[in-house]
Amino acid sequence: MSSLSIRVLGESLMDCVAQPDGQLRPLMGGSPFNMARAAALRGAPVGYLNPLSTDHFGDQLAQLLQHDHVLALSARSALPTSLAVVQITNGQPSYGFYREGVADRDYTPDGMLALLRSTGSPGVLHTGSLALVPPEHEKVLAVVHGARALGWTISVDVNLRPKLASNMTLYRAAVLELASLADWLKASDEDWATLGLGELTLAQADSAVRFFTAKGVKRVALTFGAEGACLSVDGQTATQAAPRVQVIDTVGAGDTFWGNCLADWAMDPVGAGQRVTQTLDNAMLAAAINCSRAGCQPPTLAELEQARIK
Description:
Layout: E1 6-8, E2 13-18, E3 24-29, H1 31-42, E4 46-48, H2 56-67, E5 70-72, E6 82-89, E7 92-98, H3 109-118, E8 124-128, H4 136-149, E9 153-157, H5 168-181, E10 184-188, H6 189-194, H7 205-213, E11 219-223, E12 229-233, E13 236-240, H8 253-267, H9 276-291, H10 301-309
Parallel strand pairs: 1-4, 1-8, 2-6, 4-5, 8-9, 9-10, 10-11
Antiparallel strand pairs: 2-3, 6-7, 11-12, 12-13
């Protein structure tokens, strides 16, 4: 069976990272944007669906996608690039977002579905993160429903951002509705708590897997930061502690992890359940390599293989 194409729907933005002297350093980011790069660097065929701005930041984002072999599929938008202000404390980022009237939200569901139809054979549609915040989730739901009808496999990274939500009840409901449409889903222990489902440890991961598989999700990843991760693929489950690494920061670690999972499955669609341990091991190593670098810098397949030799 040939590789499946991956199409990514969601934000691209500039992470304006606060420096010790008070200045802001702009770095390219956005969870779906990062995930697209990670999957493409692993070797999967990836296209990014949302418009990029015609501004200077949009030029930089377009150049990075091209460098990392991700196809930018939409026409550029005259609206500005979205911004996030990032404070990093003890390696952990916190975010404030500027998301109104921005380029990556300048699309219609019909336009996105036309791009998916033009792909040829249905592949994997990935979405999540800021795209799930009401009312933006309504457009995402329309795209996801249309994509499912066209035969696309749906991937969702929950990646909750509660500071953006004016109504957490609506936000949680939107996320759970998208989760019920997902074939593959990633969530963190923080996502689980923010959804109001309580505290979750790696040792309790099976209960969260059952929660999502009961909604119809076939492949579930649950991440627990430095503690490790659990991956359940078509009924086969593996758990692993996080590799030890000198952490610079954790920006893009979850995106790198999930991008490597999606790439593994897209490039080799047959027998994913039988190699769940290998898939998890590779994804954990890729995320660890990313954490050893500043910002989101996912490894290439060659870098991943070289790290394993060491």
